From TrEMBL:
<dbReference type="GO" id="GO:0010073">
    <property type="term" value="P:meristem maintenance"/>
</dbReference>
<feature type="region of interest" description="Disordered">
    <location>
        <begin position="1"/>
        <end position="35"/>
    </location>
</feature>
<dbReference type="Pfam" id="PF10536">
    <property type="entry name" value="PMD"/>
</dbReference>
<dbReference type="InterPro" id="IPR044824">
    <property type="entry name" value="MAIN-like"/>
</dbReference>
<dbReference type="InterPro" id="IPR019557">
    <property type="entry name" value="AminoTfrase-like_pln_mobile"/>
</dbReference>
<feature type="compositionally biased region" description="Basic and acidic residues">
    <location>
        <begin position="1"/>
        <end position="21"/>
    </location>
</feature>
<feature type="domain" description="Aminotransferase-like plant mobile">
    <location>
        <begin position="97"/>
        <end position="346"/>
    </location>
</feature>
<protein>
    <recommendedName>
        <fullName>Aminotransferase-like plant mobile domain-containing protein</fullName>
    </recommendedName>
</protein>
Amino acid sequence: MCLLKSEKRGADGRIPDRSLGRDASSSAAEPTGYSGGSYDTSLLVKYERHVARHLWFGEERGPKKELKVVGHGLKLTSRVLLALLQQVESWVSRSGLSSLQRTSLNKIDTNLVFAFVERWHLETSLFHMSFGEMSITLDDFSCLLHLPIRGVFWSPQDVTEEIVVELVVDYLGVSQGEAQSHVHSCRGSHYKLEWLYDLFIHHRAASSWAYATRAYLLMLVGSTIFADKTFTLVETRYLLLFTDLDRRPGCSWGAAALVTLYRYLGDASMFSCKQLGGYPTLLQCWIHEYFTTVGKRGENWKPADNCGLPRAMRWSYRQGVLKVDDLRPILDELTPADVIWRPFEDHRA
């Protein structure tokens, strides 16, 4: 079953005698379920609000038919170019996150990403393709980003504004007054990415290596695997992951990042959502690996030539000419023969 399959439409381009309300599922013509979707709604319980259901009736998200998505690749590249001194680099390496310093695409193919988001289902954490279902897995995270997928899975708890201020003072070396002022300006449990970068520069100049490293790591995850829909902030609770820089590494970053991406894909699959959070580089590189005939991409090196680098570094952005409208029928026509089912067999070693 293809959720985006076309049906005979009226002169205005819409399917006649249908509505987007719940009554449509109980009409004589459609006794159960949803036209263009599952007739058993016990699993896809949120399908009524899914973007695919609205597309079936010719209703787009907006004039540009797309979500807002931001990749921090260009900014992150300019920041990473600043050489990390050994005192900082050793802690970044110990954290298990050093590969994230160089995996981000400079630009995102938004049309390609949006076409796949339309096929994601929150309840199953799967892309619904015409030939079956697929998903992004821990193995993909491990090969594309070289993030640890074994170890402790720890999701930091939400923190109060008072705790947010204490964390800034204790672990980022900021005065009480500046901490309170910054937290107030963020209107919640967040820090600004630009502010963290400024702290990193300040503490690096002052040889305050622990403070500089925490600011850098928080900025790094806030620009990649834990990027949110504000595109400018990172949640304070992630600072709790970097309080003890000397502890033995053991956090399953891949698992935490996968959960975060699933959550944002689920949000973005709803018609009312206007932004896609998470790490779009990961999604786009995943598409490039599995669907070689879909979208336009640049290639930095062939898999046989790689020197142990994260597989995401293989790909670079190339501007395509296909819009979301063009990509929808292309995805509809894909068959299992169009998929590279095991793209990383030559990479794991």
